[in-house]
Specification:
The protein is an alpha/beta fold and about 600 residues long. The protein is about 40% helix and about 15% strand. It is built from 21 helices and 17 strands. It has a 7-stranded parallel sheet with strand order 3-2-1-4-5-6-7, with helices on both faces. Helix 5 runs parallel beside helix 6, helix 9 packs across helix 12 and helix 15 runs antiparallel to helix 18. The protein is elongated, with a radius of gyration of 32 Å.
Length: about 600
Amino acid sequence: MDRRPCDKAEVSESSDRPRIVYVVTSSLAVGFLRGQLGYLRKAGYEVTVISSPGEALTRIAESDGVQTIAIPINRGISPVRDLISLWQLCRAMNDLRPSITNVGTPKAGLLGGMASRLVDVPCRLYTLHGLRLETAKGIRRRVLLLAERLACLCAHRVVCVSESLRRKAVDVGVLEMEKTAIFGSGAAMGVDVQRFHPVPAGDDRVLELRRRLRIPQTAPVVGFVGRLTRDKGIADLLDAFSLLRRQVPELKLLLVGEIEQGDPLPSRTSQAIRNDTNVICAGQVPDTSLYYHVMDVVALPTYREGFPNVVLEASASARPVVVTRATGAVDSVRDNVTGLLVPVGDTKALADGIARLLSNPSLRADMGRAAREWVEREFRPEVIWEAQAKLYREMIEERSGQGNSRWRLAAKRAFDLLAGTTALIFAAPVMLMIALMIRLFQGPEVLFRQRRPGHKGRPFTCLKFRTMTDAYSGEGELLPDEERLTRLGRVLRSTSLDELPELINVIRGEMSLVGPRPLLMQYLELYTPEQRRRHDVKPGITGWAQVNGRNALHWEQRFAYDVWYVDHQSLWLDLNIIFRTVWDVFSRKGITQPGQATMEGFKGSAVRNPQ
């Protein structure tokens, strides 16, 4: 269901269903959203997923029936590529106009959060899946800390996938406790208990998989599922395996996952994986469910987590686990009930925990049953999806009808002051030259002053360079605009240089750089109630109507664009309008209506406001 976003104000009705936009860095992370997106669609939401291109992005569109948009997002630090990604994310969100954004994974959390903030999405969530800064040092740690703070600052709520992660994030100063939320008992997605279910001993599929992996049918197996990186504790696992082999010579280590270069393993660990025939590396596999049944014990010696779904999958498969007490990981095990918890980085404790389970089959069976019952009760996906949908509903109700946020108003005013003052300083020499030319060729009056309606219709004095004379006919009536418009005035209007004094109005706070153009006071009584909404914001030097036709538009079109801007204003939209205005000025588009020196006067619409 591909939808091409529009970049024009449309009068046609759109769906009343609130739109949720998910942003993740990699298409592989999209797989974690499978199921919940279809659930949200049935709950009454329109759903769009944005990530880097990949097969998983295509598959989620087919399986859950959602719209997808591919935008390359680099996982590493790449300033130029990141700016391009941010620009593309802003454009996509400005077109989609979501009610809610939910951004997750580190880079997408930052760039997606910034884009949501720039576009001023009404409800913004950041799903915190973990803290990479926990294992970082020096300048890298400071950069990661700043990135996480920015991502959290851009969000209204931060969903932490575990209680220990929430505490850690608050302790290191990433965010405040009041801003956090947790779905159910934690976890980002829960676990499909039907897919990961216990398999009887001696199942033909398990025996066949053992044969393919060249693991003897009677050999005990310690397993690991996930990325083979330093932070996952793979070096500790290999060291613990060496200790265990002294006690259990026939022991095998099964690694399901690929070595990643972003967090490289020590060279001795990589060599051991490649050269030790007792270490079986299966690589990345499309479905891990059967692999858990080759393992007698599942180990996760991680240094940091958000909430390890691998532990839930192993528990659903009735497999006992040995997990470190790392952030996030500690929440995934009930110590001595569903598995064992050991200190982070303690190789001997890890080996002892695994040895205890290997030597006691009945303990493994008891823990496996308890683990299965726990995940069935606490971590079914539907529990998390419902908690998620509930938070979305609460946020929409809480933030509906708030109109212009304080942040938006403050940011718009700060932008107007900074950009307006800067523009006035740079434009001062040009303005001085124009003033001298007007005085020389048109007379002593350089500025044209006129009362115009501002915010809420309150009048202010609008400043422009004079482009017309005050010539009257023999009967004492003011001549038509086209006869009073001077040659210099035509040049100033065609280049929009006559608008430069309005920068003074901007600095005074009477106007904004972007907003509906200030028209004549006498038009106020001619507006319909809908058209009068154009005065709900400050008038601007340029606006959405100006970049979509300017004076060449009919009045009804112009007012429709003005009201659309009022409903969709954001800092990103303002920047977009300013850039397009510069282009239109150079291309000299829409300066006049056909047959008019400027634009035909407004005489009222067919439907008037009853007096």
